[in-house]
Specification:
Length: 280
């Protein structure tokens, strides 16, 4: 048991007037059998924000971990995402009901369109269902994921509510400075998925290692801190208890402007994940 202080995680303001904890726990690629234990560990460490999705196949286990934690539901910020096969007004509404049942909760804090699927051309209609779900109180905040400026433009032209967040691939190798600026202009918070680039080469990078050494921190902590200082919302995934702890211990140091620039310099403009215009 660690004694991390949950109040150390900053809250990021959303355009609705609400807020979101800047650090959460991601559960993509956590097997259902491992999910309850991993989420329980995250709660024990102090995380109060969980990022799941219908696609991840572990909503039931996330719900079980929430119930077992003994925490009040209001203390937890819970995100889920609409599956790619559930675009369309009624299908999206039905899919949310299914998530609520699996997660054993009355509402989710944030519901996202997981991928825009422009080839199917239903994301505007899907967004209208999200607006209605928000009015009904079944979702507190609504947002999108993997949307490009073109997709955001269509929502702006054809619907009413500005997405609270856009959750996009973002890490030092794919820093997305342009899209982050677009989000800023539109009042949309940037959520960064795969924040440590899934733990590969980035954590072996020499420049990152040098900063980590100088700060007495791990490379992953340096990268997560870079996100925090940029203002990104992050939810690193791990099934390893020590890493779940490490990834939470990023609020007790600060990177200098020079260190931030060094990490900015790693941008290769290359995705590790799929292209939003084609995926799904
Ligand atoms: P991350 O960048 O969070 O990396 C996770 C990997 O890094 C795992 O292999 C983990 O290993 C390893 N790792 C975690 N912490 C450390 C550490 N401190 N030191 C070394 N290695 C570490 O990748 P994800 O793709 O999981 O992204 C995070 C979250 O973003 C997802 O869980 C999901 O919630 C969201 N996401 C959303 C997407 C979308 O389309 N909207 C797409 C992809 C992700 P191990 O578990 O073995 O410890």
């Amino acid at each position: 048991m660690t004694s991390s202080d949950t109040s150390s995680v900053p809250a990021v303001a959303l355009n609705s007037g609400g807020s979101i904890p800047q650090l959460g726990f991601g559960v993509f690629q956590i097997e259902p059998e491992e999910t309850e234990q991993a989420v329980a560990k995250a709660f024990e460490v102090g995380y109060r924000h969980v990022d799941t999705a219908q696609m991840y196949g572990n909503e039931v286990e996330v719900g079980t971990a929430i119930k077992a934690s003994g925490l009040d539901r209001s203390e937890i910020f819970l995100t889920t995402k609409l599956n790619n096969d559930s675009h369309g007004f009624q299908k999206a509404k039905n899919a949310l009901e299914e998530s609520l049942s699996k997660l054993a909760t009355e509402y989710v804090d944030l519901f996202l369109i997981h991928w825009p699927r422009p080839q199917e051309d239903k994301y505007v209609e899907t967004w209208q269902a999200f607006e209605e779900l928000q009015k009904e109180g079944k979702v507190r905040e609504i947002g999108v994921s993997n949307f490009t400026p073109e997709h955001l433009d269509r929502l702006a032209a054809e619907t009413t509510v500005v997405p609270a967040v856009n959750q996009i691939e973002l890490h030092p190798f794919f820093a997305q400075h342009g899209l982050r600026r677009e989000h800023g202009d539109r009042g949309i918070v940037t959520e960064a998925w795969s924040p440590i680039a899934q733990g590969g080469d980035l954590l072996e990078d020499q420049a990152v290692a040098e900063i980590a050494e100088a700060r007495g921190k791990k490379p992953a902590q340096v990268i997560l801190r870079w996100h925090v200082q940029l203002g990104n919302v992050i939810f690193p995934k791990s099934v390893t208890p020590e890493r779940i702890e490490q990834n939470f211990e990023i609020f007790d140091f600060e990177l200098s402007d020079e260190e931030m620039s060094t990490i900015d310099g790693l941008d290769r403009g290359e995705r590790i994940g799929p292209d939003p215009d084609r995926f799904g």
